[in-house]
Known about the structure:
This protein folds into two domains: 4-223, DHBP synthase (Alpha-Beta Complex), CATH 3.90.870.10; 246-346, Rossmann fold (3-Layer(aba) Sandwich). The chain contains eleven helices and 17 strands. The protein has helices at residues 18-29, 51-61, 76-82, 88-97, 115-118, 132-141, 161-168, 207-214, 253-265, 296-311, 329-339, and strands at residues 4-7, 34-36, 43-47, 70-72, 83-84, 102-108, 123-127, 145-146, 174-177, 188-191, 198-201, 218-219, 246-250, 270-274, 286-289, 317-321, 344-346. A hairpin with a 6-residue loop joins strand 10 (188-191) and strand 11. Bound molecules: adenosine monophosphate and magnesium ion (MG). Residues 67-70, 105, 118, 121, 123-125, 148-149, 186, 189, 200-201, 231-235 line the site of adenosine monophosphate.
Amino acid sequence: METKVWIVDNAVDKKGSYSQISQAATLLRENEVVAFPTETVYGLGANATSTIAVKKIFQAKGRPSDNPLIVHIADRKQLEEIAVDIPPVANTLIEHFWPGPLTLILKKRENVICDEVTAGLSTIAVRMPDHPVALALIQESGLPLAAPSANLSGRPSPTSAMHVLTDLNGKIAGVVDAGVTGIGVESTVLDCTAEIPTILRPGGVTKEELEKIIGHVNMDAALFAGDKVPKSPGMKYTHYAPKSPLIIVDGSPSFLQQLVDQQRALGKKVGVLTTEEHEHFYKADVVLACGKRADLYTVASCLYGALRAFDETDVEVIYSERFPQEGIGTAIMNRLNKAAGYQLIREK
Ligand code: AMP
Ligand code: MG
């Protein structure tokens, strides 16, 4: 299959990109899969009401069928069409955070969204992306779009159309290219069917931001213990991993450098994932600075690109610095831990 690329302007209303959006929307209505930018990462969209269309997502990504998808909508009316019994707390959150990187788990309306999207669950994950191109595409298609990240399953999520093509060229109908995405990590998944709203996956909206609006929010216990079965099925899979083993180091830059030196003495090519502040400390085969430690949002936005960049090098092992587990740092460490398969070395 030839994968079409439509280069569009983020100011989609003003800059005449509309004919391209409309071509992409037509393919979506014909039950093809199309990748598109959101404010978090690139998504791989398909008509969420069609089994044929949704199966193409799972096939292109190699995604396990028991891992449900997030449905992307552009207005409130679409929400009413796919969810029922929306609790007051969800309405409050929608007012504050939509459009934005917050996915809500709600009770699913029967017989609208196909079972493949929700992996047979009675709940549905839904969000309204804060990206003009995503919103225009959803509106133009007139469909709720099921859209996981547009990467091969297990690989770091794509933050540019180039990342999408690296993984999926020839496997999908097209990609709408509007440049790099902003936030760089996926949405926060919040279960609003639980008695106390519960974060199943940390992401673009932080726990602290949610609690300012609705009070106490729980974290799913499975986020802290590798052995519990997570309520968010997707959280049990290895994810986001570069091709070479990644190990997180909890310690000083000089301790991390010692680890690098030991491996290099054994003849190994070694990579270091750090930030602009610490970049000059390290001597290794590849040193990548991923944003600024002083502003963790810059780290989130560069993280997946950095993990992918190591795949373009010949490093055989990667050591990464650790980040504070607060604010957006919670999402960063969740993704880094998964990418590292929870391998961590602590300075004594
Ligand atoms: P992705 O589409 O790759 O961004 O991942 C979507 C995440 O949302 C995965 O971790 C899914 O397991 C989770 N998810 C989707 N639908 C549900 C649901 N109904 N209940 C719980 N988690 C869900
Ligand atoms: Mg994903």
